[in-house]
Design a protein that fits this description.
313 residues; alpha+beta; Trna Endonuclease, Chain: A, domain 1; 2 domains; eight-stranded mixed beta sheet; 19 strands
């Protein structure tokens, strides 16, 4: 059997997605096409390049749909038998042919048709996949091996994988306050991280998107010292402070002009916060003189111990 024609495969998958109600567009980036339906987005890559497949599989992609940030699902079609995706749905030759046949039948006879892909990831304040019922935890995946961590640390020694807990939060704010014809809008949205061991907040890179999974059995799982409700209360207080506006208001009475300053302050009813516990993997390399910690997600050496007031990224 010959090698697959990836361009033709992308064209056939486009027809399948369109039959399922997706609005598809060809892409010139690392993937071949994108499809959007409602609040769901699917990216498709057709390739046999192992490195390219792995980068696409492990890279999180997001899109703004209906005013909310939505994580894109991914479909990979490949003839590379060595590739096994971790975060994408793999369409084998059999899967592709089956979907082509079923979608063609649906178009001919007017039958309903849909595809089975990875569940849509919508990280928002109102909808987050419930992973507790299946015993999963949210975590950043381990991408750096213990051997690579030793090389980054520039010292030999035993290695220990530690899972450091963080509180990752997403907030949305809305509403407005009005006074004497002057109004201030409180619309805002954002994300943040709080170290659950020392309570310090830190900004993580955009590619630090948690995934559900089982904690490595060999890892040293660090217990949180700051509880979820404490983290949420801290975030709420900081957001109220951040969103408070002080405005100068001028009024006239005859020939006189009066000016006063008014503080517009949101209430907790204006803000919705969603908090999740996320474990960040860290390799601890124990040399003869020093202990060096290396981020197991991005391979960066940490300047201070991860549980004593330092950043993990």
């Amino acid at each position: 059997m010959g090698e697959p024609n990836h361009e033709q495969a992308a064209a056939e998958i486009t027809a399948v997605l369109q039959t399922a109600g997706y609005d598809c567009e060809p892409e010139e980036g690392p993937f071949n096409l994108s499809g959007v339906r409602g609040n769901k987005c699917i990216l498709v890559m057709c390739s046999d390049d192992l490195n390219g497949l792995q980068r696409f599989d492990m890279t999180p992609y997001t899109i703004m749909l209906g005013g909310s940030k939505v994580r894109c699902d991914k479909i990979i079609f490949t003839g590379n038998s060595y590739f096994q995706p971790k975060e994408s749905t793999l369409w084998t030759r059999e899967t592709l042919l089956q979907n082509i046949a079923l979608s063609a039948e649906a178009r001919i006879y007017g039958l309903p048709f849909d595809i089975e892909a990875t569940p849509s990831f919508a990280y928002s304040a109102v909808a987050t996949p419930d992973i507790s019922s299946v015993g999963y935890d949210l975590m950043l995946p381990v991408r750096i091996s213990a051997k690579d961590a030793v090389r980054v640390a520039h010292q030999e020694g035993p290695t220990v994988l530690r899972m450091i807990p963080y509180w990752r939060y997403h907030y949305t704010s809305g509403g407005e306050a009005t006074y004497k014809g002057k109004s201030v809008c409180f619309d805002a949205e954002g994300d943040g991280w709080i170290n659950a061991v020392n309570g310090l907040e830190w900004e993580f890179d955009d590619d630090a998107v948690p995934v559900p999974g089982e904690l490595p059995p060999e890892a040293d799982v660090v217990a949180p010292m700051t509880q979820k409700n404490e983290a949420k209360e801290t975030v709420m207080a900081e957001l109220i402070k951040k969103l408070t506006r002080r405005v100068r208001i001028k009024t006239t009475a005859g020939d006189a002009i009066f000016a006063e300053e008014k503080e517009f302050r949101p209430t907790e009813d204006n803000i919705v916060i969603k908090v999740d516990k996320v474990y960040v993997p860290v390799w601890q390399v124990r040399g003869k003189k020093d202990i060096v910690e290396v981020n197991a997600f991005n391979g960066q050496e940490l300047c201070l111990p991860s549980d004593e007031g330092c950043e993990v990224f």
